[in-house]
Design goal:
mainly alpha
């Protein structure tokens, strides 16, 4: 996959907002704990990405059965218009989506940062830093 001049996934046009604090850990945190802030289309695309990754990791015997299940549950997208949003790859889509949620919904208010070291806590409700061990109960 290509990277832009900032080292982020996708081409420069696809990454609409570079944020130095938006690393893989932060992207996963936002998409895991704040998926309710995603649009319906973004939720569908996220489910599609997760399903295709799961299918790719399966043995051939299981893959066909799971493919039918995923199609029946509409977890795999067939709409070409929606799939165009994944043209730069799933990593670019996930990064751009997390940045959009971060910018649209309060920026740092979404992140539970340790008051001592400033790093991201494991969950939004965590009160102990997994990095430095600080406890702020």
């Amino acid at each position: 996959m290509s990277t832009n001049r900032n080292g982020r996934p996708g081409n420069r046009a696809a990454v609409f907002c570079y944020n130095a604090d938006m690393n893989h850990e932060t992207v996963e945190y936002i998409l895991t704990y704040f998926s309710r802030l995603l649009s319906d289309q973004e939720k569908l695309l996220l489910r599609h990405i997760q399903s295709t990754e799961k299918l790719g990791a399966m043995a051939d015997a299981s893959r066909q059965r799971m493919l039918l299940l995923f199609q029946r549950k509409n977890w795999l997208i067939m709409d070409k218009h929606l799939l165009e949003r994944l043209a730069d790859g799933p990593e670019a889509f996930l990064y751009n989506t997390a940045v959009a949620v971060f910018n649209a919904h309060g920026r740092e208010k979404l992140l539970n940062l340790c008051p001592r070291c400033g790093r991201l806590a494991r969950t939004p409700n965590a009160r102990q830093c997994r990095h430095c061990g600080h406890d702020w109960h």
